[in-house]
Amino acid sequence: MEEKDLALYPFITEASAYVSELGFSLERLLVSRAMDSARSRGVERVIQALQGEIRKPQLLGSDESKILIELLSYPFARILVSCIDDNFLIRRYALAEAVSCYDLLRLESSEFICSIASDFQVDIVISNHEFDIHFTDYIRLASSMKALEWKLVNRKLRKGHVYISKEELARLLQEAIRGRIQGSLPLDIPEDICRMSTPYIDPIQTELQQMKETFGSGDFGAVESNMFPPCMVHAISNVRAGVNLAHSMRFALTSFLRNVGMSVDDIIAMFNVSPDFDMDKTRYQIEHISGSSGTEYKPPSCSTMRTYGNCYGADELCSRIKHPLNYYRRKTWFKNKNESSQQIPFSEKYQE
């Protein structure tokens, strides 16, 4: 690959080997004035990841200095993420790096995207404008993707091979990239290196804290999020951390939030950090659950939640109710019990 490609796809084996051959020590990367731009770009890279999008520069083969800055900013960003050692940051960073590569990959030539796939031990055959991938590789790459269209039973399968489009291959590789980066962090960085990195870590810590405060603010309008059952609290925590929910849990969470009064736009805003986020598709699904098709859906009962493995952290109140909405109604009723002398007695409205 050309050096500019190594800078744009720094997670591949060839890029790692190239950086090693350059012979830059951790100390030189941290203190050399010649590396100022690479360090600044490394900080920017992590902050952009927290904000949701790592913006890759336009690189030409002749831009040797820009290529080196971009190439070295990646290992420096990984050092910073490792020194901070925060799971939320690691997930956000890995996802943002992967998404930025997806945006590039879907525009690359078929031969180039196949060369990236080979770095993940995936052999691709190009046939009639489609990409032929063995079903075992497909399952491995698509295993964490919960949307129904990625299920093997919904794919075109012939003689043990799945046929996918170029954009679908790019999306599968995005997930492989995310897994590789996330699985490799945190690195084992010496404490003295982390101390030397403090001036670069501080602005990231500030952004990280602001991000956590924003995600943890419980901005649900008039909806009282502190009254949610443990299963929904768990699901929301995963969504905010960029974890891809199973389809059954995504339906349960969306229908629950709509039934307790959260707006469609607020739910969309919450889901916009999910790996599979698609604005139009998300809006359609939420509006469909909300009754745009004529049927307003209720969230599954507690027994159904348990059947699908979506019951998490059940507390004492959970043992006395049969539906997540009853949990919310009962907790809000108890909360308001002493605020007014005229309360409508709680009733178990939602049954199995």
UniProtKB/TrEMBL annotation:
Residues 223-317 form the DNA primase large subunit C-terminal domain. Its cofactor is [4Fe-4S] cluster. InterPro entries: DNA_primase_C (IPR058560), DNA_primase_lsu_euk/arc (IPR007238), DNA_primase_lsu_PriL (IPR023642). Keywords: 4Fe-4S, DNA replication, Iron, Iron-sulfur, Metal-binding, Primosome. GO terms for biological process: DNA replication initiation; DNA replication, synthesis of primer. [4Fe-4S] cluster binds at residues 231, 302, 311, 318. Coiled coil: none annotated. One of its GO terms (cellular component) is primosome complex. One of its GO terms (molecular function) is DNA-directed RNA polymerase activity. The keyword NADP does not apply. Pfam families: DNA_primase_lrg, DNA_primase_lrg_N. Binds 1 [4Fe-4S] cluster. Belongs to the eukaryotic-type primase large subunit family. NCBIfam families: PRK02249.1-2 (NF002588). HAMAP family: DNA_primase_lrg_arc. Regulatory subunit of DNA primase, an RNA polymerase that catalyzes the synthesis of short RNA molecules used as primers for DNA polymerase during DNA replication. Stabilizes and modulates the activity of the small subunit, increasing the rate of DNA synthesis, and conferring RNA synthesis capability. The DNA polymerase activity may enable DNA primase to also catalyze primer extension after primer synthesis. May also play a role in DNA repair. Heterodimer of a small subunit (PriS) and a large subunit (PriL). This is DNA primase large subunit PriL. It comes from Methanomethylovorans hollandica (strain DSM 15978 / NBRC 107637 / DMS1).
